[in-house]
Amino acid sequence: MQNAVLHIADVNKNFGGLRALSNIDLQVMEGMTHAIIGPNGAGKSTLLNVCIGRLAPDSGAVVFDGEVITGKRPYEINQLGVARVFQTPEIFPDLSLLQNVMIPAFARRDGAFRLNAWQVAARQGELIEEAEHWLEDVGLVEQKDRLASNLSRGDKRRLELAMGLVQKPRLLLLDEPTAGMSRHDTNATIDLLQKIKKRGMTKVIIEHDMHVVFSLADRVTVLAQGAVIADGKPDEVRGNPVVQEAYLGGSH
Ligand code: ADP
Ligand code: MG
Q1: Could you give the number of structural domains in the chain?
Q2: What digits encode the pLDDT tens for the residues 218-239?
Q3: Mutational test site, ligand 1, from 11, 14, 18, 36, max ligand atoms within 8 Å of CB
């Protein structure tokens, strides 16, 4: 049987009288690219924030790799192997691309934060090589010495992706990867995510643009007004009239 890497178990969250999340129950299976989509205000960001420990649910639990992570702090959840990219963490604008990717490599579970200065110095060459490897993967290695602030918006997303991948997370959460992008950068980001998909890492993509996810997702869960209204393979979900209605009726 397939393994659920993430299980969002009957989660509820209210903001005052507003039901932002209503009995959300979903499982993300090992190796899948699982998209969570829905019109603006559907509850996607709230759900993501519950998963990474920024928000506590009113009831229900989040289980990661068989362990309840509800109540843990964001950095603890990150240390367990959940990485979130896009929107936050921001890149470090005054550092080079190489330095930007080395920082999360240092910070990860087996990283250099636990080492003394001598050990860090000894590992530096190895970390540089590793950072270069991921920069190459996202197509930025030739620009590794540039300052991150000089990158185009699309290239910043590439950099953020390398910063996520270098952590070798068990679960990678992609938070609206194409938000605010031009059509050109959106297409380039989709191409990049398709390439990364071949690595088989378990991923959750939060996205409000339906078109972005259909070329990437193995499974799609649709939220509207805080509830799951559809869940299944992309083709099943795309043809679902309830989903069409939610998008047309929403603010999107
Ligand atoms: P999405 O990311 O799908 O656009 P959100 O999760 O941001 O949706 O928001 C879901 C609903 O919860 C919206 O109606 C939003 O206005 C409301 N909401 C989100 N965060 C808060 C908050 N901190 N306080 C009050 N209402 C909130
Ligand atoms: Mg949102």
Answers
A1: 2
A2: 999 999 999 999 999 998 998 8
A3: 18
